[in-house]
Structures are given as structure tokens and as C-alpha cells.
From TrEMBL:
<dbReference type="GO" id="GO:0007155">
    <property type="term" value="P:cell adhesion"/>
</dbReference>
<protein>
    <recommendedName>
        <fullName>Curlin</fullName>
    </recommendedName>
</protein>
<dbReference type="Pfam" id="PF07012">
    <property type="entry name" value="Curlin_rpt"/>
</dbReference>
<dbReference type="GO" id="GO:0009289">
    <property type="term" value="C:pilus"/>
</dbReference>
<dbReference type="InterPro" id="IPR009742">
    <property type="entry name" value="Curlin_rpt"/>
</dbReference>
<feature type="signal peptide">
    <location>
        <begin position="1"/>
        <end position="20"/>
    </location>
</feature>
<comment type="similarity">
    <text>Belongs to the CsgA/CsgB family.</text>
</comment>
<keyword id="KW-0732">Signal</keyword>
Length: 234
């Protein structure tokens, strides 16, 4: 297996393009104004991105991660943390193929964003793909999840603290589990929103929201689908 490992501890750095099969690409950035780009074409590739703000927390710091994988059985793990500037951080992940994964194997390395206003934008095209985090709050402090899936037998599970989720799925036998919570530092001016659109058959959608003001819209077109929305107010 070939490996590419990059560690960056300065400002405004970017890295990582890989073409082949069975590669590892790791980018670790500490400081301000990060940009990380990874492109992998082939099968059984792995991408790891960690972006952390430095010791100072100036207003306007940002982290951007852009990952593209084309092939089967590829894997992405993302961790963006401690960015509190007015400019939000973004993670853009595109996977084309089957049996691809965006997740972590345990709570310590699950995909994670904890900066205010972060965006996770994921597009998956294929079958048996997985987007899942085992962290209690995969996205904290009013983050945004945008997910588009084209395919069947895909599995999505995510937890947000004061989250905004927009999920669009075209295909059959997909499972979506979304938890949106108020968090420890409760702020009644913040709320959870979920918009799930599904076109296909035998899909299962579960949305759970905890806050004073929740909003969930689930629109399903197809046969033998199941949708459950649970809302709890303080």
C-alpha cells in the first residue's frame, strides 16, 4: 500500500492529490486559514484530514477541505475543530462508486466539526455507501449538513447540536437516522431544522429533534417507505 502523509503547521497551506489504487492520504494542519485538497481515483483509497486552529483565535480564520474519490471501497475521515472566527469552515466531499464510507471507527476519530457555522457538503453516487459518525455530536454549534445520495442500500447516521440538515436521496432501501439536539449550553434563540426528500422505494427515515423550536419536513415519493419524526421541547 502506498502512503502520502503531510503535516502542516503554518498559515494558508494546501496539499494532496493522489491517483491510484490502495493509497492513504493524510493532511494535518494547525494554524489559521487552511486549505486541504485530496483527489483519489481508484479503489480502496483512504483520506484523513485534521484541521485545527492555532493558539490564537483571530476573527475570520477558516478551514476548507475538498475531497474527491472515484472508485469503490474508499474511505474519508474528517476533523475540523476550534475555528471560532466569523468566516465559517467548510468540508466538501464527493464520492463516486460503491461501498464508500465517510465515518470514524470510534468516538475519538469520527468525522467531526465543532466550529460555529461549519458546513459539511457530501455527494455520494453509488450503492452501499455509508455516512456515519459515532460521536455524540458530530457537528456542534449550529452547523449545516447538506447530503445528496444517488443509489441504493445507503446508510446515513449523524448527530447535530443546533443543526440544519438538508438531505436528498434518490434510490431504494436507504436508511437515514438524524439526531438534532439542544446541547449543554442551551440557547433558546437557536433551533433545529431538518429537510429530507426521498424518491424511491423501501427507504427508512428517522428524525429526532430536541429544542424549544424544532422544524422537520420529510417528503417521500415511492412505495413501502417508513418515516418517523420525534420532537421534544423543553
Amino acid at each position: 500500500m502506498k502512503k502520502l502523509f503531510l503535516i502542516v503547521g503554518v498559515l494558508a497551506m494546501s496539499a494532496g492529490v493522489v491517483f491510484a489504487q490502495g493509497n492513504d492520504a493524510s493532511i494535518d494542519q494547525t494554524g489559521d486559514d487552511h486549505s486541504a485538497t485530496i483527489e483519489q481515483v481508484g479503489s480502496m483509497n483512504e483520506s484523513f484530514v485534521v484541521q485545527t486552529e492555532g493558539t490564537e483565535t483571530p476573527d475570520g480564520t477558516v478551514a476548507v477541505a475538498d475531497i474527491y474519490q472515484e472508485g469503490d471501497a474508499n474511505y474519508v475521515n474528517l476533523n475540523q475543530r476550534a475555528f471560532y472566527g466569523s468566516v465559517n469552515s467548510e468540508a466538501l466531499i464527493d464520492q463516486v462508486g460503491d461501498d464508500n464510507t465517510v465515518m470514524g471507527v470510534n468516538e475519538g476519530d469520527a468525522w467531526y466539526q465543532n466550529q460555529t457555522g461549519g458546513l459539511l457538503d457530501v455527494w455520494m453516487k453509488g450503492d452501499r455507501n455509508t455516512l456515519r459518525s459515532l460521536r455524540t455530536e458530530a457537528q456542534k454549534n449550529k452547523n449545516y449538513l447538506t447530503l445528496d445520495i444517488e443509489g441504493s442500500d445507503n446508510d446515513v447516521a449523524a448527530a447535530q447540536e443546533f443543526g440544519d440538515a438538508d438531505i436528498d436521496i434518490t434510490g431504494g432501501e436507504n436508511t437515514v437516522s438524524l439526531w438534532q439536539m439542544a446541547g449543554a449550553n442551551f440557547d433558546e434563540t437557536l433551533f433545529n431544522t431538518a429537510d429530507v426528500d426521498v424518491v424511491g422505494d423501501v427507504n427508512t427515515i428517522n428524525v429526532s429533534q430536541v429544542s424549544t423550536s424544532n422544524n422537520a419536513v420529510v417528503d417521500i415519493m415511492g412505495d413501502n417507505n417508513s418515516a418517523t419524526v420525534t420532537q421534544t421541547s423543553f
